[in-house]
Amino acid sequence: MIQKIKEKIIEELNINDPFGITHMPFVFYDKNNKKCLLFDIKCGLSWHLFCFQNDELFKINTPNVNTYISECNGMVYFKNGLYHLTYTLNDMTVSHREIMHATGKTLKKLSWQEGLDYEIGLVNEKYICAGYISRPNRKGGIIHFYHHNQNDIKSCINDDNKIFTITTPWHFAKMGFISNQQDNILVTYVPDFEMINGEGTCLINVPNKTVQEIKLKNGDAAYKASIDPITKECYYAKRHSGFEVRDIQVVQENEYELIETDKIVIKN
Known about the structure:
The chain is built from one helix and 21 strands. With 268 residues, the chain is mainly beta. Strand 15 (200-205) and strand 16 form a beta hairpin.
């Protein structure tokens, strides 16, 4: 899949060398149970959300796209005849982030809801998460988990509906889930200082309240990782030299392990 995507980028976007411009992978299976990838491509100064589906590469038709807005943290699931897509809009002109959510019969035609005024979050069939990459005074990130039990996602965010909260002493960078496994949430953390391969992604099982970290055996950091529920492959954004020079890589199930960690903590 990764090689096909690179070929499409060269052919359709007129980019001679796609090295270092792919980021934030999210593996999912569509309504026909076909494997797809939602991910970012660097476009000028920003990262924009694309999809690879049915051997076709296309841009997600998001609102308010311009040179200084990046679209991060994309994820999608299919339910009741509709795709449900979420991403985080990052307006770099005013340092503002907003969680955007849309539904549609196809991923090429989506109806967008009013955004959520949070820095990082997640929407899947069972849960809605909302929080902040980092709290004031460098106390680390915080994200609240809520039951997704109403159509209006904003209405789900209230104390009576909260399941638990996760924190990290560092920062949060991305959320996701394993496709068709709504209970298995993936959360990426990053240190608040420059540290080569210091970032990582943790797997949180909500009902069991367990946290495990993805450890790649090749020595890379599992940055903004996504796991294929069928093949168990792990997709991640490999870090190269230079600011945000990222490239989507994939390793097989036997090339990583899940280990216990205290990088992310669950609090009631």
